C-alpha cells in the first residue's frame, strides 16, 4: 500500500511539474492542481498510513491515526481551491487584456522561448 | 539614562529643523544648535567623572536572542570622540547658517546633519558591536545624503555614490569581521571582547577577522588603497567637508582601530598591515596634496595623509605611539576643521577655489587670513602650535620603529611625509594669503565674512594655539583618559611639552621644515616636471570597475529574470530538485525503512491503476483542455477515495466537495479561454521539462517512501488525541484541532480565503475597462451550445434537492465537532447546493431570489470567528480559548455545545461567501461575453404557462 501511495505522489508530482512548465495558462493551472494533490497527499502521508482508524474518539478504542496532518491538509485543500480560483480568474483577465493565453503575455506570432533557446 | 539621551537627542532633534524652517533660517539653525548644545552639556556633565577614571554604562534589552542589546558606555575614548562630534558639530551648525545660500534648503541640511551626528555619537558610545555596526551603516547613509546635498551637481551625486559604495562595501566586510570576533568571544559586548584579547589572538580566525575589520576601518578612514573616495566627497558643501570628512566620520575608522587596539594590536599581522597602510597613505596623500590646485582638494589629500599618520601610529602597536595617535586626533580635528571652514570662507567670498588665482588675500580678509595661516602652520608642524607637538611625538616613535629588520626605512619615509606636509601647508599659506594678488578679476571682491562664519574657526584656532602653548594643562587630562581607554592598561611615561631637548625627532622636524620650504620654492618646476607623468586616475578606475559590476549584475539578472514565467518556474523546480538531490547524497540511508507495511487490497490496486492511467493521459492529452479537466476530476475522485480508505473521512468529504466547485469553476473559465492548447513546445524543450519533472517526481516519491517506511516519532498528535474530548469538547479530533487547538491558523486561513475571493471580485469588476472590455464586446461564441439552456428535468430536480442539500449542510455542520464534518465541509456542501440552482435555473432567476450579499457573508464569517476568539478575553482567558457545555435537545439528543461552534460558524460563512462570490463573478464575465440578456424565467419552456393559456398556443 505504501508503495502505491508513494508512486502516486511521485507520478502526480511529475505530471504536475511537466504541465507547470508549459507555456499556456490553462495547462499551468491544471499542473498546479495536480501538484496540490501531490502535496496534500504527501502531507497526509507524513502521519503514516492506517486503515479503519479514523481520528473520531470512540469508547474502548485506543488506536487512532495521526489527526494533525489531516487537520493541516483539510485547510490546505480549501486554501488551494481559493488560490486555484484566483489564478483562473487572473488568467482569464490576462487573456482578455492581451488577447492570448501565453504565460509570458507574449503577443501571438512572436517566437516562443523554446524557439529562442533550442 | 542621560547617556542614552545623548545618543538619542540628535535623532529626536532631527525632526526640529524640518519643522522650524517654516519659522525662518535663524529659528531653524537655533533649534538645531540647541539640540546639539543640550547633548554636549549632558556629555560635559559627565566629563569630570570620566576623566577621573569612571566608566558610565547603561543597558536595555533589544533582541537578546541575537546578542543585540542597546548598551552604551562612556569611557575616555568615547568622551574624546563624543566631544569632538558634538563640539565641532555645534560650531559647524553655526557656520553653516551663514555658509548656505538662500536657495539651499536649509531644513533638509540640518536634518541630515543631525542624523549623522546621532549615528556618529552612537558609534563612539556603543558597548555592543552589533549596535555599533548599525550606527556605522547609518553614518555611511547620512554621509551619502550630505555629500549629495547639492543634488543638481553631477560631482555631488557621483561623489556621494562613490563614498557610499566604498564605505558601504567596507562596512559589509566589517560586519563579517565583527561577527567572527563575537563568535570567538561568545559575546557581542565590547567590554567582554576587550577583556578577551588573548582568546581572540590565539584563535585561528584572528587573521580573517582582523583583515575584515580593517577593511571597514580603512575604507571609512580613506586609507590607501581606498583613499580615493575622500577627495571626491569634497563636492559636498564645505560645512560637510569640515565636519564629516576631516573631523568626525573619517575618524570613525581610526576610532574603531583605537577601540579594538587592546584586542587586535600587538601582533606582527597588525603591525605590518596597519603601520604599512598608514605609512603609505601618509606619504602618498601628502605628495598628491602638493599638486592640487583646488583649495578643498589640497585639504582633502592632506586629511588623507594625516589619517594615514594616525593609522600608522596605532599600527606601531606600542602604548607610546597610541598616546601620540590620540593626541594627534585632537590636534588634527582642531586645525583641519578650522582650515576647511577657512577654505569655505575663501570660496564663499571670492567665488572660486582655484589656488592659482589667489595671493595676498590676507590684506583683503585679515581675520580669515590669520585663522588660515595659524591653522596651516600647525598642520605643517611649526612651533609653537599643537600640530608641532604631535608631529614630534610621531617622528620620535617612527625613529624607534624597525620595519622588516630595516631601522632606517620608517624614519626616512616619515621624514619625507613630513617634508611634503610642510610643502603643502606652506603652499596654503604663501599661495593663498601672502604674496601678490595673481588674479585681479576674481568672481567676487573678497572681504571678511560675517561674525557667525569666522567665529567657529577662530574658536578652533584659539584652541590650536592654547594646546600648543599649554598642552599638559589644556589637553593633558583628556589625552590621559583617552589613552588609558585605548591602551586598556598602564599609561607609558610621557610629557606633553614643546621642548624635549635635542632629540632625533627635533632634527627630523627641522629638516622637514627646511626641505619643505625649499620644495615649495621649486613648486612651479615640480609642477611642469610631473605634469606629463601618467597618474592612475582613481575615479576612472572606480567608474570602470563599477560599470563592469553593473554589467555583470545585468547579465545575471537578465538571464535569470527575463520576464518569462516559464524560465522562473524551470529555475525554481531545478533548484528545488538540486537541493533535494544534494540532501539525498549527504546522508545516503534514505530508502526503505523497517516499518511494517500495509497490505494491498484489490480495490486499492484498481484505484491506483486508474490514477496512473489518468495521470499519464492528462499529460499526453493536455492539448485537449476539456478532456484534461475531466481527467483531473477523476484524479480528484480517486484521491478522495484514498482518503476514505486511509482513515481520513473529513479529508475525503472536503476533497470531494472542493472537487465539484473546482470543476465548475474551470468549466466556466474554459468557456472564455481557448479550448485547445497549441502544440508549440519543441522536442528539446519537452525533453528537458520531462527530465526535470521525472527527477522531481522521483525525489518526492522517494522521500515519502522513506518516510512512510519508518515509524512515526513522538509528535504532538498524542496530546491532541488525549485532550480533544476533555479540553475541546469534541470527539472529531480533526475538527477540534481546526477550531480549537490550532484555531488561530484556521482564523488566518479563512481570512486568506476571503481575500482571494475579494481579489477575484476586484479582477472581474474592472474587466469592463480598457482592452478587456473591447475583447469582451467583440466576443464570438466559439463552441456549440445546447439548444435547451435550462432543461426542465434539471430545474425541477435541483429545486427539489435544494432543501435536502441545505439540510445535509446543516447536519454536517452541527455534527462536525463529534463526527466527520464541520464548517469547511458544510460550507462547501451548501455552496454546491446553491451553485446547482444557478446552473439549472440560470443566473438571473436565481439572483433575484438570492438576496444575499456575499461580501457581507465573508466579512460576517471573519467577524464571527473573531468574536468567538475575543469572547475568551471576557473570561480572562487567551484569544480563542474555547469552552463547552452539554446540551440536551429533544429528537437530536445530547450533544456538546462548544463555543468553538461559533468559530466554526465563521468558517462556514466565509467558505460559502468566498466560493459563491468567486463563481458569481466568474459567471458575470461569461454573461458579458455571450451578449445574452439575463434570463428571468426559470426555464426556456415553461409547461405551466402553456397550460394556462392553451388558446394562444393554438
UniProtKB/TrEMBL annotation, chain A:
Compartment list: Cell membrane
GO cellular component, one term: plasma membrane
Residues passing through the membrane, by range: 6-21, 28-51, 71-96
InterPro entries referenced in this protein's UniProt entry, alphabetically: CPA3_antiporter_subunitC, NUOK/Mnh_C1-like
Keyword annotations of the record: Cell membrane, Membrane, Transmembrane, Transmembrane helix
Topology class, membrane: Multi-pass membrane protein
UniProt superkingdom: Bacteria
Pfam families according to UniProt: Oxidored_q2 (PF00420)
NCBIfam families per UniProt: PRK08600.1 (NF006372), PRK09094.1 (NF006573)
Protein name listed in UniProt: Na+/H+ antiporter subunit C
Organism: Thalassospira povalilytica
Automatic annotation (TrEMBL), chain B:
Transmembrane portions of the chain: 6-23, 35-56, 76-96, 108-125, 131-150, 162-185, 205-230, 270-291, 367-388, 408-430, 451-476, 496-520, 568-585, 605-621, 626-646, 652-670, 691-708, 750-768, 792-812, 824-845, 857-880, 900-920
Localization annotation: Cell membrane; Membrane
Domain NADH:quinone oxidoreductase/Mrp antiporter transmembrane: 126-404
Primary location recorded for the protein, binned into one broad class: membrane
Sequence ranges assigned to domain NADH-Ubiquinone oxidoreductase (complex I) chain 5 N-terminal in this UniProt record: 65-110
Ranges for domain Na+/H+ antiporter MnhB subunit-related protein: 794-916
UniProt keyword terms in alphabetical order: Antiport, Cell membrane, Ion transport, Membrane, Transmembrane, Transmembrane helix, Transport
Membrane topology: Multi-pass membrane protein
Name used for this protein in its record: Monovalent cation/H+ antiporter subunit A
Organism of this sequence: Thalassospira povalilytica
